[in-house]
Specification:
Strand content: 15-25%
Radius of gyration: 23 Å
Helix content: 25-40%
Strand order of the largest sheet: 1-14-15-16-17
Number of strands: 17
Distance between the termini: 30 Å
Structural class: alpha+beta
Number of helices: 15
Largest sheet: 5 strands, antiparallel
Amino acid sequence: MSKRPSPEAHVRPAAVVPRSWLIALTGLVVVPWLIVAGVYFGEAPLAPASHRAAITPTIGAEPGPWGSLTVTPIVISPPLEYVSTDDGPDGPPRWYFPGASPDQVQALLVSSGLEVSTAARIRATLRPEPRLAGVVASPDPEVVRALSPEARARVYGLLASVPYNAPQAHSYRFLGGSVDRWLDGTLMRPATRALVEPLMYRDGAVWHFADLGLVEAGLGDDEERRRLRKTLLRQSTVLVRLGVDAADEVGGLAEYWGRGGRKTDLRPLLESVAGAGPDGSIDVVHLLPAFARNFLYRYPKLTAADFDKPVIANCLWTALNFFEPHPDSRFLDVGHALETLKTDYYVVESGFQLGDVVAFLDAEGDLYHAAVYLADDLLLTKNGTSPMAPWLILPTEQVVDYYRSRAA
C-alpha cells in the first residue's frame, strides 16, 4: 500500500496508519506512549534515534547519516507586542470537583498532602455545582498561596483533569532544570518574581504555573502584567549546528538533508561549509525545507482570515506540511489530516529519516500529538494551537514530558 518515489521527486508519500488514529483530536487522552509513523522519500533504512532525558549546554548529538551535530539550549518568548492583557486579571480561585461530595473533597485534599485544618477551610467554601453534579470550592487566596510546592503539584494535577479548572488544565509550562532558567533575565520586576516563584510547582521534568489571577490582582500595572505573561510564555528549545569537516562528507550529508528533491540545491552550500576549515559548521535551519525555515523559532501571525478556519496552525498541520512549498490549509481540518495519515502514510518503528512524522499515541493507541523527525532524537514540533506557541526543535523525551499532563 505504499509508493516509493525517486529520491529527487517531490510528491506526497504513501503510507498506512492505525485505524485508532481516526478518533478526533479534541477527545484524546494524555497518557503518553511514543509510537512512530514514518513517511519515506528514500529506500535505505537508517539507524534508530537515540533518546536522552535532557540536553545540556552545547553538546554533541549521536553521530549518524545526518552527520556531526552540536546542540545548544536556548529560551525564547513571544514579542511583547504579541502578548495580550485584554482579558484582564483572572478572578478569584475556583476549584471544580465533578461528582464529588464535600466529604470526598476533604478526603481528597488530605490525601494530596494538605493539613486537615487547611482541607477543612477549603471544605467550608464548597457550594453545589449542578452542571457537574458535584461541588465547587472558593479557597481563600491566602490558603492557596500557602500551599507547599509538593501539595500544589498533587492538588493541581487532580484539578487539571477537569476542563472547568482552566488555570490548572491549561497551566503555563516550562521544560527546564530550574525555575531560574524560566525566570532569569526577564523584563518583569523583582517584586513580581517574588510573587510568582512560590506558586510554581513541578511535574516530572516540567515546571508549571497556574495562579496568574493571584499575582495579577496585586500588580495594578498593565505593562507589568504584559511583561509577566511574556515571561510565563517562555519556551525551551535548541539550536542545532552541523559540522562538515571534509569534502568527502558532502555526498552523504546532501543525501540525508536533501530529502524531498533538494539534494542538488543543498550540495553547493555544504561544499562551501566543508571548505571553511576545521571549524566549519552551519545551522541546520538552512538545510531544512522552506516550510521549516519560514516557521522555526517564530510565532503565528494571526489575520482576520484565521478566524474562519477550523483551528489555528497546530501539530498535524505542521507535520503534514513539512515538505510542502506552500502550506496546505486543508490540514487544519482534523478529519482531513487524519484521513491523509491513514491513506498516505505507513508505520515504521526504526530507521527514521528527515521529515518522518512522529506520532505520539496514548495507552489506547489514539494519537494526541504529531511532530517531524529531524535527526538523532531531535524533532520539529508545534506544541499547541495557541498563537503564543512557537515552532521549536526539541529532543523527543522533552516532547513526551511536555505532553505528560494534557494534549494540545
